[in-house]
Amino acid sequence: MTDPWVALEPGADPVARAELLRRAHDTFTEAGTVGRPVRAVVADSWRRSARAGVGPDGTASVELMDGELGAYRAEHPLARVMPLFRELMGTFAADGRHLLAVCDAQGRLLWVEGDPATRRQAGRMNFVPGARWAETAVGTNAPGTAVAVDRPVQVFSAEHFSRRAQPWTCAAAPVHDPRTGKLLGAVDITGGDGLAHPHSLGFVQAVARAAESQLALLTAEQPAEDTAELTALGHDEARLFAGGRKVRLSRRHSEILVLLARHPEGLTGDELLCALYESEAVTPVTLRAELARLRGFLGPGLLASRPYRLTVPVESDVDAVERRLETGAITAAVAAYTGPLLPGSMAPAVVRLRRRLADGLRAALIARSDPDLLADWAHAPWGEEDLDVWRALAAVRPTAAVRARLSALEAELAAPARPSGR
């Protein structure tokens, strides 16, 4: 096969291939070994699914319902290109008795449209809006795997990890923010064996690229000076998009921008000095020099003084997480949280904000007790040693892997600290 992301090469017998895959799937679920004819992308996905504790007989859970689903969809960036998706794929899906599906970057289905009879069939396995089809929830599937590996992918028959999904074939391609490159989600076509063809994968790839082009045009139509966007979660160096420019900031400049974005009324030099530096030995002259460099870097007109403030409204990813937490939209808050705020920063005010944001999310996750949301946090780099979350996860998903990890964490906590020696 020339393209490893395509499920069947032209001329292959889908019935014979499906039978071979079912046997390989049974072997993997029983013995943990993968053999031919399983493609490498599928074998890797099966292993990730197993490590996440996914069972082959499980099904997707519905996380977003009613008002929360509607609110989340309304503010999701892919809502702006849903008319394009429907125009390019709607007729194809309806005429071929397929489904058009769009998921977010966490594998949650936001829209599922197409042939009514096919929708009813898919509904029996919870392939419905609001359901979680991430690899960590239901294993290998095209939309979930496409966002996991950030590549277009096709999944055929028993390549699906969940047995309930094995009668289906799907192809999905990721969609990115054209300005930042951030993964927004994926567009998917799901149906029968007729989709097990290279053309269906090429089709969704073309649709995804068209969506990115449309998003770029829509963004260009907006007045660039109206607002600025600050991305500071999960990175030591923040990104600022303002005035039609995308700027990567140094660590110190990132800290300053985060603090000024939190205080649109402005901060005095003394207030910034206390917020940024642990040492009282740092002088106002040092801070003024740093601010002068930042002003030159940003360009004229964006950073004012007396007090120091930004001259345009700033929308940050921190604001997005906090806003969703305040309204009780926990799933949406977790989706917006891409990691700790400036994780390497030791600036006192940034450290306090970082802890407050993470603690608020953790408390909400533990209170919600949703196994998939807890698993996402526990398996993320910032949650690997989060004992409280692992305990909450073990209470609602007591798999052998979860219990083993919890036991290891508790043993580490109980172990006496080793004395330092020379």
TrEMBL record:
Keyword DNA-binding part of the UniProt annotation: yes
UniProt GO BP: phosphorelay signal transduction system; regulation of DNA-templated transcription
Keyword DNA-binding: yes
SMART domains associated with the record: Trans_reg_C
Keyword tags: DNA-binding
Coiled coil: none
A GO term for molecular function: DNA binding
Pfam families: GAF
Gene3D superfamilies in alphabetical order: 3.30.450.40
Residue stretches making up the OmpR/PhoB-type domain: 244-310
Entry superkingdom: Bacteria
Protein name: GAF domain-containing protein
